[in-house]
Amino acid sequence: MSTRDTAWAPGTPCWVDVAVGDVDSARLFYEGLFDWSVESGPPEFGGYSNAFKKGRYAAGITPQMTAGEPAAWTTYFAVADIDGVAAKVTASGGNVVADPMDVADLGKMALATDPAGAMFGLWQAGKHTGYTIANEPGTVIWTENMSTDWVVNKGFYQKVFGWDYDDMSDETFKYATFQVEGRVAGGLGEIAESADATGAHWSVYFAVEDTDQAVDQAVRLGGSVIRPPWDTPQGRMAIVTDTQGASFAMMSAPAEGY
User: Sorted alphabetically, which PROSITE patterns does this protein's record hold (predicted)?
Assistant: First the structure.
C-alpha cells in the first residue's frame, strides 16, 4: 500500500477519473466492484464525485462534458507549472484540448492529447493533491500508454515530463517503463495497427485481490469482459468495461504480494 498527503512529483501519474453519462450508475458499479465510498461534490463542481478507499482519495467520477461521447478513464500527471507544461505539449507535437483552468482552490487542470491521439490530463495541486492511496486492492496500481507510435510518443513524453526510460523490448514487442526521480511510474508500449481498434490510449490498472473473482463481480454488476484473465510475470490481469463502456484493467499481484 502507498499513501501520500503531499503533491506528487512532477511527471508522476497522480489522479484518474472516469467520464460517464450516468454518474449514479457508475457510482453503484464501482462501489460494488472496489468497495469505494463515492461522495458528490458541491453544485459548483458540476456533479463531479470523489471516490474514497479507506477514507482516502482513490479516483473521480465526472459527468461527460459532451453528450454522446464514449465513457472513458483519464489519467492525470502532476505538474508544478501547468501553463509551462501545456506549452511544452504544443511545442512537442501534442494538442491542448482544454486550456489550464482553476478548479476553485483545489488546483489547476488541463486536458491534452499526445501525437498519437491519446488523451491525458495535467494537474497542478492545490488543496487536492491527487489520489492519496494507491497500490492496494481497489486503487490504482499501474498506468500505461499504448499506441502505434511508440517511438514518437516516447520522445514526446520525455520532452514534456523529462521521463527516463527502461526499455524492455525484444523482437516480439516494444515496451518501456518510465521513471520519475528514479522510480518506475508507468509504461509505454506499441500495438500493431491491426489490433489498434480502440486507438491510442492511456490504460488504468486497478489492483484486486483475485482477478477472476473481480471479473465475475464486474459482470454481475453489468460490466463486460474485453480480455479474460491471463497470467503475466507481474500478476494476473484482465480488461473489462463498466456498465457504460469505459474500459479499465484489473490486476492481482503474484505470490510475493503487492
Answer: VOC
- The answer to whether 124 and 130 are in contact (CB under 8 A) is no
Spell out the residues 6+ positions from residue 126 whose beta carbon is closer than 8 angstroms to its own: 103, 104, 105, 106, 107, 108
Between CA 198 and CA 185 the distance in angstroms is 23
The residues spanned by each domain of the chain are 2-133, 134-252
Q: Does the pLDDT value for residue 30 go beyond 60?
A: yes
Distance CA 38, CA 103 (A): 19
d(CA 42, CA 23): 14
Instruction: For 31-43, write each residue's pLDDT tens digit.
Output: 999 999 999 877 7
Q: Which three cell numbers stand for residue 190?
A: 506499441
Dihedrals φ, ψ of 41, to 5°?
-80, 175
What CATH code is assigned to 134-252?
3.10.180.10
What is the homologous superfamily of the domain 2-133 according to CATH? 2,3-Dihydroxybiphenyl 1,2-Dioxygenase, domain 1 (3.10.180.10)
Look-up of cell digits 510475493: 256
- Give the cell for residue 102: 482553476
The strand pair at 201-207 and 140-147 is best described as antiparallel
Query: Is the Cβ–Cβ distance between 76 and 129 less than 8 Å?
Result: no
Q: Could you report the per-residue pLDDT of 164-192, keeping only the tens digit for each?
A: 999 988 888 899 999 999 999 999 999 87
Same topology between domain 2-133 and domain 134-252: yes
Which triple of cell numbers denotes residue 11? 511527471
Which H/E stretch holds residue 108? strand 107-113
